[in-house]
Amino acid sequence: MKKFLNNIDDLLEESLQGFAKAHSDIIQLNEQPLFVTRNKQTTNKVALISGGGSGHEPLHTGFVGLGMLDSACPGQIFTSPTPDQMMAAAESVNNEAGILFIVKNYAGDVMNFEIAAEMLDCPYETVLIDDDVSLPKTHSTGRRGVAGTLIVEKIVGAAAEKGMNLADCKSLGDRVNQMTATMGVALNCCTVPALGKPTFELAADKIEMGVGIHGERGHDTMDIMSATDIVKIIANAIDADLNPKKSQKVLLHVNGLGSTPLMELHLIFNLAAQYWEKKGIEIYRSLVGNYTTSLDMTGCSITLTLLDDEMIHLWDAPVNTANLRWGC
Amino acid sequence: MKKFLNNIDDLLEESLQGFAKAHSDIIQLNEQPLFVTRNKQTTNKVALISGGGSGHEPLHTGFVGLGMLDSACPGQIFTSPTPDQMMAAAESVNNEAGILFIVKNYAGDVMNFEIAAEMLDCPYETVLIDDDVSLPKTHSTGRRGVAGTLIVEKIVGAAAEKGMNLADCKSLGDRVNQMTATMGVALNCCTVPALGKPTFELAADKIEMGVGIHGERGHDTMDIMSATDIVKIIANAIDADLNPKKSQKVLLHVNGLGSTPLMELHLIFNLAAQYWEKKGIEIYRSLVGNYTTSLDMTGCSITLTLLDDEMIHLWDAPVNTANLRWGC
After folding, report:
1. Does residue A328 lie within any of the structural domains?
2. Contact (CB<8Å) A262/B58
3. HEC string of A116-174?
4. Which residues in chain B have Cβ-Cβ distances shorter than 8 Å to A13?
């Protein structure tokens, strides 16, 4: 294993210190317990808190700032943050309008956010993200939350910034989640530093279809194939879930998992856009790049969100975070 | 080799089509010959044109837009664009205030931009970028242009947007280039699609110090070492070139070469900031992420720019491109 680090145990902390230093105009870091907040406390708005295991940067810390999250709680790599982090973050950003937790559907995250929420002395709601259509809806622990998470964070973040109340933010978040579907594919797996080798091996002529973001295997190991065929398989799975109608406006998000060149992500975007345009779907907004990564995994995911006018308006609203920024 | 592609020969074109589709609010693509321009023609300002081999995305196409480039000419992977691309780009964006070419110092790029410029029927100047301090100043073909290029593009782009004339833009660009030094390190090499394998091999316990951005070997193959030691070697080389004085304000840019997780880039940023802060240097502005890549190379570069008030003002000015955006 070759990585830029000193001691594995210090990687997360050293990295967050660098993140905080590089973006001190937008965020600040609390070290004990670990959480990130905006550097300007807000008043009179629903506070959005997300978090989860580290290793998915820029998710979630890179999305703290005006028009998006109020706080993010980073756990150790691929490990849920602890309730004390979430409690401290909530106490830090609570401003009487209530707290909305945005939680990716993993057992540890769900449990720890619940523990923290129940100890809170303020109104709160939780939006659970489960956009990964590579698992059936009937899967025992439900579907996973993956790259669609940032779309919920962006749209609900804009709504909260405009003064939407807690119940409506919760309902909007659930709606965006329901309108969003994602599926991922890996060409090579990632290496968790503490493990020191890839979490699974893929032969030189194999790809892994339906991967999540924690180096777990997908639902199918397949022969390597053209980008066009990869896009077809993923787009078909998304269509089976969302069933977009002709003339539907959509947001198309192609997300790199860590080691995939932007050039290839744009090629995938082009093919995915062509696939849906042929069906009369309107690619109305787009996002291409590394946003929800899985350390150094080579691969990508495709996310489609069915948009309505309110969602478009909120997607376009100003956002000023370390890794998503426009209109500010 | 596993990559997301259909035919290797179509990779660049398919990718650029995706790029153009994803960012149609900012840029437009001309396919024959290949070049990218802003989607709104400007008037009465110096037009900035850059370009070079592809495989370094988001450089240069991702930096076309308000406050930065007027046009970018992408060559084939790691191959100079041709004079007809540059000529066509120049004719497309020329608006009587003259053209400034920003050229990384590689023989092919320099030659082709010269050929194009000499055929032009309008005033022009060229800023040659040679920020890579891993080669001695006396190197036969001079030093290479690497990650410092975008800093020149941003600062001169802002100046041109404010109406600075051609001679002053040229002089400013030269000054920023002189005040900028970069050195890169690779943990693993990149795979050029047409070659199908890494351009050089590195053992599991070796790193390559002083790499460029084309998969060429660096000046030293070294044993793997801590991130702190890597930063020291690079920072020493940069200091030897720039000799920053106490209280000097600087821009610190940590650039990922393609496959390095953001978490590790922030760790490197943290160590580099500590290194210079200990010497009394003021880390006044920062940029961390994948900006000048080398396909899927695992590695990073550190760039330092000595800032004066004019440069700070121009760095902070609004920019609205696909991959660098603030204040708009």
Report:
1. no
2. yes
3. HHHHCCCCEEEEEECCECCCCCCCCCCCCCCCCHHHHHHHHHHHHHCCCCHHHHHHHHH
4. none
